[in-house]
Design goal:
Layout: E1 27-28, H1 35-41, E2 46-47, E3 53-55, E4 60-62, H2 65-80, H3 82-92, H4 119-126, H5 135-142, H6 146-157, H7 161-179, H8 184-190, H9 196-206, H10 211-217
Parallel strand pairs: 1-2
Antiparallel strand pairs: 3-4
Helix pairs in contact: 2-3, 4-5, 5-6, 7-8, 8-9
Length: 221
């Protein structure tokens, strides 16, 4: 054990300690209110204040309470697959998947409540992700004006209708990559993302890996 008498004292006489675990030279995050303090106190840690969580192999860090839930769901998804993670998220009434690289949205945090009146139209859209859906299509199904649909969906989910559709299509593609051996081009069609190149573009941008690399992380039994 470390001898407390020999621990150097920092500002205000507080004993300086190493961060939990060995983060020297490793990437980590924390809540945006505390990342500057973490970086100042432990300069050898690669503090990233722009993400929800960091999976650095055997060390994982998150940016607060809800980001901690995102990280837990990420671990479930990584170990047990998208279907199990989505079922767990539904029981917890939280978003099924927010990538760790997503911004913390300091000025516009995710709302804590949901608009239950939107549930039927969102379920309707999930069943038709392979179709060319528009904001007008969603608004017509919800019996709202496009402007009202846009405002209410963004208030309920924190994203625009088109971003919500993209997120759902990516989730569909992830599930198909994990559970089938369909060609990448066919998965692009079934998820509504179109061509294999378009699927690859959105995967790299939103998830950080290519569809092929993602599939290799979830080999079929």
């Amino acid at each position: 054990m470390r001898d407390e008498q020999h621990v150097p004292q920092g500002q205000h006489g507080l004993r300086e300690r190493e961060p939990y675990g060995d983060l020297t030279g490793r990437r980590a995050t924390a809540h945006w209110l505390h990342t500057a303090q973490l970086a100042a106190r432990y300069p050898k840690v690669q503090v990233d204040d722009s993400v929800l969580y960091v999976d650095d192999g055997d060390v994982l860090t998150s940016a607060g309470l809800t980001a901690g839930l995102d990280l837990c769901l990420h671990l479930v998804r990584r170990d047990l697959g998208a279907h199990v993670a989505n079922q767990l998220a539904r029981r917890m009434v939280v978003p099924a998947h927010r990538p760790g690289g997503q911004a913390q949205f300091i000025d516009q945090p995710m709302p804590a409540t949901d608009d239950r009146a939107l549930a039927p139209v969102l379920d309707w859209a999930r069943e038709r992700l392979d179709e060319p859906l528009t904001v007008e299509d969603l608004a017509r199904q919800a019996a709202m004006s496009p402007r009202t649909l846009y405002r209410r969906l963004q208030a309920a989910t924190g994203v625009t209708p088109l971003q919500w559709l993209l997120n759902q299509r990516l989730r569909r593609a992830q599930s198909l990559l994990e559970s089938t051996d369909l060609p990448i081009s066919r998965i692009g069609e079934l998820s509504g993302l179109g061509t294999a190149n378009n699927l690859r573009h959105h995967f790299l941008k939103q998830i950080g890996v290519s569809p092929s690399d993602y599939r290799r992380a979830f080999p079929l039994a």
